[in-house]
Amino acid sequence: MKRRDFLKLSGATCLALASLELDNRFLRRLEAAEVSELPGSLGAKEIPSVCDMCFWRCPIIVKVKNGKIVKIEGNPKSPTNGTRICARGNAGIQAVYDKDRLKYPLKRTGARGEGKWARISWEEALDEIAYNIKKVKEKYGVHSLALFDHGASAGFFREIFEALGTENFSNEPAFFQCVGPTILAYLFTYGYQAVDPAKIDFENAKAILLVGSHLGENVQVSMIKSWITALEKGAKLIVVDPRFSVAAGKADLWLPIRPGTDMALLLAWMNYLIEKGLYDKDFVKNYCEGFEEVKEAVQGYTLSWAAKICDLPERDIKKAIEILAEAKPHVAIHPGRHTAWYGPQDVQRHRALAILTALLGAVNVPGGMYFPTKPHLQKAEFLELEEDHEVEPPEESLKEDIPFANIFHGSPTDCIIKATLTGEPYPVKLWGVCGVNLLQTIPNPYQTIEAIKKLDFIFTIDIMPTESSFWSDIVLPDATYLERYDRLYVCKENKCYVALRQPIIKPMFESRPPFWIAKELAKRLGFKVRFKDEVEYLNHQLEPLKLDVEKLSAQGGIAVFPAKPFRDKEDLSFGTDSEKVELYCEAFEDEDFDGVPKFIPAPAPPKGYVRLIYGRVPVHTFAKTMNNLWLNHEWPENKLWVNDKLAKQLGLKDGDEVILENQDGTRSDPIKIFVTPGIRPDAVYLAHGFGSRSPMMTRAYKKGVSDTFLMTHYENDPMMGASSHRNNFVRFIKDGKVINIPELRPVPPEIPRFELKKSA
Amino acid sequence: MRQWAMVIDLNRCVGCHACTIACRAEWEVPIGNGYRRNWVKHLGPEETPHGLAFTFYPGLCNHCDNPVCVEVCPADEVEVVFKDPYSNKTKKMSVKATYKHPFTGAVLIDKERCLGCGNCVEACPYNARYLNEDLEEPKADKCTFCFDRVIRGEEPACVKTCIADARIFGDLSDPKSKVYELVHKKGAKRLVSKEVNIGPNVYYIGKEKDLYLLMKQAPTKRTWEELE
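Structure tokens for the assembled complex are given below, as produced in the milestone run.
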């Protein structure tokens, strides 16, 4: 029936039933029986827990009515997010009730990657995994086993693989494609883990510098809140980004830098501070080592040189550093997060940020770097190993040539993939994959697929049928965070608290919590598990706090302790060898790297191409949430950002569809373009995580274009082994015709050009 | 006379969509074409006379002073005794299926009496209403300023979840309220045009360049006059 017909009909018949109705919507005390009758989430049972829609883990309150999760809100007792949670946190409900979830253990029946499956029992699945682990270990040695992991509950599996004895027991793409370079840089400058999350007091800053960080589109609730509060209080914001990001929209100064030249800008700023005597002399004198080396190394890097290299107006570069110097020491410099950009210069770029921070004295002061406060928890080891349990390192390690890979657990993902492909220095024959989608995370997924084809066995533990699940032999359905306990969440910010994740509902279908899966697997591998269940495990951890799971839950799921983010000046020392901030890094120099960063340009686009850059949208986490009913509806696909002048020259209009072809001839599906002045003409931008290749993710499948599947070229950071993501270049194909892209911003001779392979 | 109102601070908003998902969850807004009680539209990056801008249009029902959606409702009026949620006062009033609540200024829908004709949906120049045709009988639906939450002392769902504290809700008739201050002293703006000004009670503050983009979103079509 059409609306209008319906109207005629009902207008005639539907006369007022009662002439006098009472509006009963007013405040009153409600009887228990009435509660479930209340509209919306009102009157629901409230259970405190911890979010897991991204890795930041905000404390939440989960609201349940009639056994169904109806709402998720921030936990008002949380000193960080309070009642706030982001779009993803709000949409956690649909992670649980997603129709495409992995429901039962699956066994591959067709060829790998063909997508043919049989439902099997947990018993059979676990037996098969244990059998293959033992078989591969026996045949190729223990180091042929590798675990790729991520997330809250991967820890149990990590312990199992570590106990098995492989050096490849935790190869986190989240580290080796993401935060690794900057963690290393700050660790060797400040001697503590200052990066994950950024230990920067945004809220009290007088000036904020973001280099390639797109806060706002990249969402950590507490950081957004303190950043925005600082801006409201008058902090100046400088954003260095080839794209006009949401953050750039709020900035006092946007520096649309030529991609790959950030280091030139940072070195010139350091030099300017030193030359003009604008650096924090007291802080440098009292708390830093290696100032003279820095001074010498950076002289010659002038603002005018940087202006040419970075393709920025010199006056803006100067204005920016003067804003920072003026605000010192209350300067918040974001250390960066996803920092595996170009390979060879990645660690050093973040060393430059770390040094700049110290030159401005922005350490241990409001608005600058702070120190985390750790609550006193008891270490809980999942496995009870024999006293004589020993593991032997391999004769030749995978990561032998990467001197700083060893300070982290596990191995660089690239080393595992290469060893799997080549059998050198030893064969890798079995992969476990837990909570990470390798093919939408690691550059050159085509190479990863080739490696997978060479494996004897691969199993995946996940919630959704991702691409990685799709290429596995056995797939185990993980419980979502709303159906399980997990390790305690310990806040590592300038507040100190411990929060409890606990099951809100029973695991749906045949999904199982990771503790149970790991315990069953451990048993089959001959290990003894120390704890009966998660509660016993958590109670053990909580013991020194005189808390247990029940008490912690009853007090609102969170235990808050006093934090001391700033140390007394007389006690201020750092965890480095010299106990000072190491502006010059001897350990790097000892391994033949630069003790002070030097400018190494990233190759410019080859003629006819633009650089492919990427980032996040605030409603999605990696490639993890694209199938979520609500989030998918909110942001179903990505668009390609194209500079307006470039588009005009190419005759392209907003909304036109193009195919992207990269420097190696790899092509994308068609994608709509978004024409904007908010991006440089030598780069195009895609939001990350779209264009799923797993047909089992019915909403996300082929929606938008995957940036990762256009990355066939990458370079490794020689220090810690990260794989880069920003060395790929594309041109367009429209209506079957190749469109070469004109160079609107000429490249100076100091910057080499990426060389196309002859075959491409 | 009490008037609930919301001020959205575009200086704070990062366009994260937490408000839209929280609303969908709270009120079980189904997935469907145009089915939503609130929204976030991305504006820019675009050149403005005040520089390059990138901002958002977070929209919701404006709970207008002169709600044209109420005017076009064809349901018969019935007499209802309304109670003030904040006191014991009552007021007897004849209202249609959609009406402006006498004690809060919220524009509400009586779902029992909604005919599902869609008149109000088409009348709203802000496109703030939708017709939920997933129900056995279609019903109009829209933002209520979370009436049921607010009268029980809770914040609106979108306000409570806003990660940047960009949404400020309160009573515009109360000179001590934050919304009063923002509207009367800080120059918060209504999204109106010379063609369409029906007294919206959602206001915006932001940089000149951001408001320039936002104001381009102001309705110019007198949609309610186009109804048959």
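Chain A is about 30% helix and 15% strand. The longest strand of chain A covers residues 59-65. Further analysis is deferred to the final report.
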